[in-house]
Amino acid sequence: MDRKEPLVILLMLLLNGLEIANHMQATLTAPVLATVALAAMLKRRVRPADVVVGAVWWGIGTLPYSVLVVQQLLATGDWAGTIRSACTGEAGRFGQNVFNLRFSPRIVAISVGFTLLSFPNLLLPAAAAGIARARRLGIEGRLLGALAAALVIHAGFVFRYNIVDQHTFFLPTYVLLAVLGGFGAAWVLQKPASSSRAWLVGLALAFLAATPIVYAAAPAVARHFQVLRGIDRGKPYRDDYLYLFSPWGCADRSAEIICERAVSMAGADGMILLDDPMIEPAMEYSASRASHEGLTVRSLPPASPAGEARRHKALAEAGRAAAGGRRIVYVPATVREPPPAEIEWQREGGLFIAVSPASAPAF
């Protein structure tokens, strides 16, 4: 028995638990790791006790999240609702997306497009070569099988995950492709020196050098062909083409601009109403940096039958605060939608500020 293998099993299970605590997408890898651990036990490479301890470590790794789930369960007593919320978001609002079983041509085309844009080089052919030739490099079949299985599971999940920010869930797939691509590159480099190998290496390096040029040109090309027509988000101050087609959103500062301007407009004792709860942590951070302890940041309930009453109540409270002289700033989810009709607003850039009776224009 390899003395290192039990430690490897324990660490991989612990790390997967920590990954799950960070995001539930990591549960897709858990069945693969469990299979690896059980196979190692059946082949007597690790002891049953090692697998049990590994499972305990896995549970310990999940604690930052699983403790919250247990607290929610104890508070509500709703087993089904708690599990649904833990797996698919608040109130299970992403359940239909998570368990979507349809591979629509549009989603598949977008998925393929993002994958090709992420690797405008020879990595994808190298990954295919890595799968085919890994055994010649001395890569164990169980390692190759685990990587291939994880790739299929993650790619299968994200290729039919029909949500707006689908592209952000490709990261595990890309990491696995990069590992397999490394196998393919190693297989080429271990071959005897020849003109064909030199030509292939040179071509690979040329593609890598051209990658920044592809990324620099991608937003302009996509804008020219209007590839986002009808599906762009229309966030205030955001250029969707830069945001989506520049790596890691490095060319986009829309969230920072929204937060800074909203905090500045609201002032130390104002109130900021958000129609997109995703920006609330960033807005709270900006308010903290500005030392505006009296500034209130509130996400409005959704404009849906379930949240309409709570939304109306929140807007009524904001209207009374505006009438009392408090500065109320509204951050829309999209520039295409009008602000709530319950309050009179004045547009300032991509945001809105409530018009109090004292500041309303005279007619």
* N to C succession of SSEs: HHHHHHHHHHHHEHEHEEE
> What would you call the shape?
globular
The total count of helices amounts to 14
Fraction of residues in β-strands:
5-15%
* Biggest sheet layout: 5 strands, mixed
Low-pLDDT stretches are none
The helical percent reads 55-70%
Strand line-up in the sheet with most strands: 2-1-3-5-4
Count of the separate structural domains: 3
Find the structural class using helix and strand composition.
mainly alpha
Question: Taking all residues together, what is the mean pLDDT?
Answer: 90
Distance between the termini: 88 Å
Radius of gyration: 26 Å
- Strands, count: 5
Task: Provide the fold topology.
Layout: H1 5-22, H2 30-42, H3 48-76, H4 79-88, H5 95-98, H6 105-118, H7 123-133, H8 141-158, H9 171-189, H10 195-224, H11 240-245, H12 254-266, E1 271-274, H13 280-289, E2 296-299, H14 308-323, E3 328-331, E4 345-348, E5 351-354
Parallel strand pairs: 1-2, 1-3
Antiparallel strand pairs: 3-5, 4-5
Helix pairs in contact: 1-2, 1-3, 3-4, 7-9, 8-9, 12-13
How would you summarize what this structure contains?
This protein is mostly helical and 363 residues long. The protein is built from 14 helices and five strands. The chain has three domains: 1-99, no CATH class; 103-227, no CATH class; 254-354.
What does this structure look like?
The chain is mostly helical and 363 residues long. It folds into 3 domains: 99 residues, no CATH class; 125 residues, no CATH class; 101 residues. It contains 14 helices and 5 strands. Strands 2-1-3-5-4 form a 5-stranded mixed sheet, sandwiched between helices. α1 packs antiparallel against α2 and α8 runs antiparallel to α9. The longest helix has 30 residues. The radius of gyration is 26 Å and the shape is globular. The protein starts with a helix and ends in a 9-residue tail after the last strand. The mean pLDDT is 90.
